[in-house]
Design goal:
single chain; about 200 residues; mainly alpha; 2 strands; about 70% helix
């Protein structure tokens, strides 16, 4: 289930998080007193294309908001499975009682047999409604989690890019190959978690 939610989230963000970001170039003169090492590093950075990429799968496994939602979804999934099993056990047990009565000629009248049959049908109907409602709540919660994580990532990346001024920030899955030097996944994760953990406190 853990992998399932990450997959759902990653699929939902996919193209939206080709992370096409507004081009907001941050130019400016370098300080005259910069060290040679800083100047060399800056030159290497400037030599790279003006775009970066994020490994969304890695981001979703490390972003605390996504992890918290994932744990919540796992609990809901477990409750759903337990509720389904409970109804199945109850239905199977009552159906077996009916079968045993039939085999042992324990029904004294057609009316008593029909009553049990109606009860079984009612139990099945109630089980379907109960499980159906839980499935709906699960689907709604998954959609809400998906939207919340997506909105959070997009909002942060837009804010992040105001400082860095990249022409675009792509989802790694959007291309067959990226230069590893263009990977800013860890920076994004660090910033997202710092913001999320601060809010939680």
């Amino acid at each position: 289930m853990k992998r399932k939610l990450y997959t759902v989230l990653a699929f939902a963000f996919g193209l939206a998080l080709s992370l096409a970001v507004v081009t907001s170039s941050c130019g400016g003169n370098k300080e005259a007193n910069e060290s040679p090492v800083k100047k060399e590093k800056a030159a290497e950075t400037e030599a790279l294309p003006n775009y970066r990429y994020v490994d969304l799968d890695t981001l979703l496994t490390k972003y605390n908001l996504a992890k918290d939602y994932n744990e919540e979804m796992m609990r809901m999934q477990e409750n759903l499975e337990n509720e389904t099993k409970r109804h199945q056990t109850s239905l199977q047990s009552f159906a077996s009682q009916i079968q045993n009565k039939v085999q042992n000629n324990s029904y004294l009248s057609q009316e008593s047999f029909d009553t049990d049959q109606q009860k079984l049908a009612s139990m099945q109907s109630n089980a379907e409604k109960s499980v159906g409602m839980m499935q709906q709540k699960y689907a709604e919660a998954a959609a809400k989690a998906q939207q919340a994580v997506n909105d959070s990532i997009v909002a942060f990346v837009e804010q992040y890019n105001k400082k860095h001024g990249y022409d675009a920030i792509f989802n790694k899955a959007a291309a067959l190959h990226f230069n590893k030097d263009l990977d800013i996944t860890d920076e994004i994760v660090e910033g997202l978690n710092a913001r999320y953990n601060k809010v939680k406190k």
